[in-house]
């Protein structure tokens, strides 16, 4: 911990604050009393007083009363802030109507107390943030981060934030191994917690750093002393909550100075302290034997309730969650060469996969409607190399169900609080463990609404996966859109709420490691599924990441542009909040304008700011948590003014936050994988210029009589397989689903992608291998001995050309009719297009069982098939209209509409073909049908324009019919 020393400037600020307080508290009432006197009348005025003319004297008296009231309010604010600062009771109470007056009082009190010995107690008391409430336990002052004293409000909130996460992380340590047994009593050493000096508090991390050489060994100290009675009668229950005068037993290898003392040889302390150390030495495991006070049960003293901070991985999960977690863990041991970083980032992978799918569908529709040429009805380009590996990793690692549950849970919480007319609590972080969601509140917020439950104390709200699955979609704004994954600890995933941090979050470490963290944070914020909208400003990195979400991400060149932008936005948000009467963006998100206002703005600054710019950013960030603005700033030295939370990324992928008690396996997006992700989005960009038509399907079938396949699967409509025996029992559904996935990906399917599609919650290697063996045996081999299921050079599973689906045939027929033999022969074109439409029996896999084929949500084939059918119908319609065969054209269009009923192009051509028949009543009936299908939205403008052209009196005719 870096201790900020008092400078000459601090003394100047304290002196000026003292003068200002003296003038405002003493000078103002003195001047009023001596210069103006008592402003109120001496007696009760009569009614005639109301009709008298207002004189200058009367006006001055009214102003004097107003000044007296303002002085009284400011004095109350000073007293409230002074009491909170000196007692350390936490966030000060709000004075009604205080607003700017209380903020001014807070800043003056902070500046005054900064140089005094009592400044340490200005850090809010943390006893209410995670302490076990015993009947006789008094509030304690815990170790908190020493934030600069320039920003009193930030200092107050930051210390509470640090303690909250530190208290949560400490529970993981409570279930970790102690790292060695207690030494012999004669060799045991002890340390006495020192009283605060200035704003510096003693902490277990610092004690471990000084006397054990590694701050991360604080867990050993905690385990040695947990639940043992201290001299004041209380017990150590949280690693972040220690008191001056407490005694800590130290591991036997502790070294350093006279602060580490033997129980019988403590010459530098009083006899009373020696006796306390001697008495304390008689407690603990070495005195009581194994299974004493440090049983490690994970229960609170006396209550027996499970402590839930970082969730205890030893407890049984809900339902089969524990078995699923085991299966996932078993499978993660073999990545098959796929990027580990994305395999271990389920929320990030789900966001990227969803955004990529939307981008590809957008490109497909624009292509179909002529906005972008060259890919009508075809699949997007097949990625290769690193891009293909990254796409496979996204398919394997993504957890869309987890994203859906997280989104519904948070919105459901917001809706429940709105119904109860309660404000959203400030949430610093969330933990996901075995599907359960744990929210870390900045301060107690009362009883959570059902089905949420209170955690170990009033600062933790918990929702089990079982309860989360009961939530349905609700029409409410996303309450915490700034949550972003940072990493995992003990199989629990941490999401930090960047917009709620009271100040800057700094990140130190090597530049490449920092860049991997920044890229991961930016990518998840840009594509996550639990936010409505936000602005993400990238500075110093990630210009190419803007393609992931152009509506969310913007890139600025330098810090100067950032400061200018954020100064303007900070002023705007403060004014908007004041005009709306909201204390913070959280209260705005539960109001009438929840869907249109108060979206977060998250700033990711990877470059080291200059000293001057750092101060400006710190000033802007002082009130950022209230305004919904978050700052994550990179630093080379780890020393950044205004940093509320400080983190470090190591070369081993560990994300450390010592003062928060965090040691995470960081979530990263390394440079190579970042480039591959961007490449996927570039290829799917609907505005991207193509180098020419790319309409050739990825797999062409020999449609002649000689090309009859050995295995033929019907996927367009009900699923049928011709040429194979039906597998037995339970294996049948899995084998059919696996074959369908392989048929839709003729380029090859990674084994991990196949297994994750069939078992979204994970599966062990032996189960996957057994399935592949059965699939290989089921498909068999061609007459020449070639297996129909093979593995290519990259390890991906591929099907032989003799295994064909009707979708392959449909694509091949359309391609041959429009770009092959049908181009030069009208008769061949008509026959091929007719044969293609005959294959269409309904939507893709029309009879798929509920709960299976969920991987289709990641595919674009459900959007591609209707477009391909529509293109085929349009081409056949054009073929018939060339010979004025309107009835045949109408028949072809109706056949296509059964599979693509929403394609506006088909309806337009149907109107034209019907008009060509000359039957006005038939055209009027078709227009009436179209209006009925359009519902409340009405007809599209282009359809109305076409009807005006073909049937100018259609409105009157329809009105007469209706």
From TrEMBL:
<feature type="transmembrane region" description="Helical">
    <location>
        <begin position="103"/>
        <end position="122"/>
    </location>
</feature>
<feature type="compositionally biased region" description="Gly residues">
    <location>
        <begin position="289"/>
        <end position="305"/>
    </location>
</feature>
<dbReference type="InterPro" id="IPR005158">
    <property type="entry name" value="BTAD"/>
</dbReference>
<keyword id="KW-1133">Transmembrane helix</keyword>
<dbReference type="InterPro" id="IPR018392">
    <property type="entry name" value="LysM"/>
</dbReference>
<protein>
    <recommendedName>
        <fullName>Bacterial transcriptional activator domain-containing protein</fullName>
    </recommendedName>
</protein>
<feature type="region of interest" description="Disordered">
    <location>
        <begin position="283"/>
        <end position="332"/>
    </location>
</feature>
<dbReference type="GO" id="GO:0000160">
    <property type="term" value="P:phosphorelay signal transduction system"/>
</dbReference>
<dbReference type="Pfam" id="PF03704">
    <property type="entry name" value="BTAD"/>
</dbReference>
<feature type="domain" description="Bacterial transcriptional activator">
    <location>
        <begin position="805"/>
        <end position="951"/>
    </location>
</feature>
<keyword id="KW-0902">Two-component regulatory system</keyword>
<feature type="transmembrane region" description="Helical">
    <location>
        <begin position="57"/>
        <end position="82"/>
    </location>
</feature>
<dbReference type="InterPro" id="IPR036779">
    <property type="entry name" value="LysM_dom_sf"/>
</dbReference>
<keyword id="KW-0812">Transmembrane</keyword>
<dbReference type="InterPro" id="IPR011990">
    <property type="entry name" value="TPR-like_helical_dom_sf"/>
</dbReference>
<keyword id="KW-0472">Membrane</keyword>
<dbReference type="InterPro" id="IPR052196">
    <property type="entry name" value="Bact_Kbp"/>
</dbReference>
């Amino acid at each position: 911990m870096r201790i900020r020393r008092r400078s000459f400037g601090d003394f100047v600020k304290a002196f000026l604050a003292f003068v200002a307080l003296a003038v405002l508290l003493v000078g103002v009432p003195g001047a009023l009393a001596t210069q103006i006197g008592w402003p109120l009348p001496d007696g009760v005025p009569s009614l005639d007083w109301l009709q008298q003319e207002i004189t200058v004297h009367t006006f001055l008296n009214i102003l004097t009363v107003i000044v007296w009231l303002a002085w009284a309010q400011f004095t109350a604010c000073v007293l409230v802030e002074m009491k909170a600062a000196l007692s350390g009771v936490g966030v000060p109470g709000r004075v009604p109507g205080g607003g700017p007056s209380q903020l001014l009082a807070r800043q003056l009190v902070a500046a005054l107390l900064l140089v005094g010995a009592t400044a340490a107690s200005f850090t809010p008391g943390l006893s209410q943030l995670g302490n076990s409430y015993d009947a006789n336990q008094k509030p304690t002052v815990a170790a908190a981060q020493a934030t600069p004293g320039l920003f009193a409000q930030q200092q107050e909130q930051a210390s509470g934030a640090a303690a909250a996460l530190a208290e949560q992380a400490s529970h993981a340590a409570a279930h970790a191994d102690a790292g060695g047994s207690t030494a012999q009593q004669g060799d045991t050493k002890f340390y006495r917690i020192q009283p605060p000096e200035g704003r510096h508090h003693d902490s277990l991390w610092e004690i471990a750093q000084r006397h054990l050489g590694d701050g991360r060994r604080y867990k050993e100290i905690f385990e040695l002393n947990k639940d043992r009675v201290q001299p004041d009668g209380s017990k150590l229950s949280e690693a972040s909550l220690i008191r001056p005068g407490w005694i800590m037993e130290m591991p036997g290898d502790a070294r350093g100075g006279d602060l580490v003392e033997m129980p019988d040889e403590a010459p530098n302390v009083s006899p009373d302290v020696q006796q306390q150390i001697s008495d304390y030495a008689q407690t603990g495991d070495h005195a009581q034997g194994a299974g004493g006070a440090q049983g490690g049960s994970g229960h609170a003293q006396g209550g027996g309730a499970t402590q839930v901070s970082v969730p205890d991985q030893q407890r049984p999960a809900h339902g089969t969650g524990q078995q699923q977690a085991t299966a996932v863990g078993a499978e993660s041991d073999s990545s098959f060469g796929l990027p580990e970083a994305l395999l271990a980032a389920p929320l990030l992978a789900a966001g990227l996969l969803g955004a990529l799918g939307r981008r590809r569908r957008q490109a497909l529709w624009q292509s179909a409607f002529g906005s972008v040429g060259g890919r009508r009805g075809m699949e997007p380009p097949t990625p290769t190399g690193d891009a293909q590996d990254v796409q496979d990793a996204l398919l394997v690692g993504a957890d869309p169900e987890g994203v859906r549950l997280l989104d519904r849970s948070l919105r459901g919480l917001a809706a429940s609080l709105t119904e109860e007319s309660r404000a959203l609590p400030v949430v610093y972080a969330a933990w996901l463990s075995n599907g359960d969601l744990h929210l870390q509140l900045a301060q107690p917020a009362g009883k959570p609404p059902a089905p949420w439950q209170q955690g170990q104390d009033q600062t933790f709200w918990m929702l089990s996966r079982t309860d989360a699955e009961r939530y349905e979609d609700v029409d409410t704004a996303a309450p915490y859109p700034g949550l972003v994954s940072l990493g995992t600890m003990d199989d629990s995933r941490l999401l930090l709420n960047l917009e709620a941090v009271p100040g800057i979050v700094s990140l130190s470490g090597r530049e490449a490691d920092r860049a991997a963290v920044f890229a991961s944070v930016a990518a998840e914020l840009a594509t996550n599924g639990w936010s409505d909208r936000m602005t993400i400003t990238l500075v110093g990195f990630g210009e190419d990441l803007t393609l992931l979400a152009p509506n969310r991400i913007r890139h600025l060149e330098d810090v100067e542009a950032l400061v200018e932008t954020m100064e303007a936005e900070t002023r705007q948000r403060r004014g908007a909040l004041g005009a709306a009467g909201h204390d913070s963006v959280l209260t705005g998100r539960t109001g009438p304008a929840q869907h249109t206002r108060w979206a977060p703005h998250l700033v990711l600054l990877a470059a080291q700011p200059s000293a001057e710019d750092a101060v400006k950013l710190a000033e802007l960030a002082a009130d950022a948590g209230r305004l919904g603005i978050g700052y994550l700033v990179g630093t080379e030295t780890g020393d950044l003014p205004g940093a509320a939370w400080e983190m470090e990324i190591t070369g081993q992928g560990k994300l450390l936050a010592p003062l928060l008690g965090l040691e995470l396996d960081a979530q990263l997006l390394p440079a190579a994988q970042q480039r591959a992700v961007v490449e996927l989005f570039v290829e799917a960009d609907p505005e991207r210029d193509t180098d020419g038509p790319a309409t050739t399907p990825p797999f062409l079938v020999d449609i002649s009589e000689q090309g009859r396949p050995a295995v033929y699967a019907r996927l367009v409509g009900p699923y049928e397989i011709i040429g194979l025996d039906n597998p037995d029992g339970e294996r049948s559904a899995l084998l059919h689903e696996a074959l369908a996935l392989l048929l839709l990906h003729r380029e090859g399917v990674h084994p991990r992608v196949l297994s994750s599609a069939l078992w979204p919650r994970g599966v062990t290697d032996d189960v996957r291998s057994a399935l592949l063996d059965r699939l290989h045996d089921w498909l068999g081999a061609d007459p020449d001995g070639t297996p129909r299921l093979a593995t290519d050079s990259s390890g991906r599973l591929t099907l032989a050309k003799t295994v064909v689906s009707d979708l392959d045939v449909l694509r091949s027929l359309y391609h041959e009719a429009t770009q092959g033999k049908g181009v030069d022969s009208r008769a061949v074109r008509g026959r091929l297009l007719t044969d293609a439409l005959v294959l269409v029996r309904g939507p893709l896999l029309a009879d798929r069982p509920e709960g299976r084929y969920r991987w289709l949500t990641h595919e674009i084939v459900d959007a591609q098939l209707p477009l391909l059918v529509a293109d085929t119908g349009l081409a056949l319609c054009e073929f018939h209209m060339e010979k004025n065969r309107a009835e045949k054209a109408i028949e072809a269009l109706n056949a296509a509409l059964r599979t693509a009923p929403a394609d506006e192009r088909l309806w337009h051509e149907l109107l034209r073909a019907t008009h060509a028949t000359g039957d006005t009543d038939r055209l009027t009936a078709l227009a009436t049908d179209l209006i009925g299908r359009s519902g409340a939205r009405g007809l599209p403008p282009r359809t109305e324009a076409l009807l005006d052209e073909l049937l100018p009196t259609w409105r009157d005719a329809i009105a007469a019919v209706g």
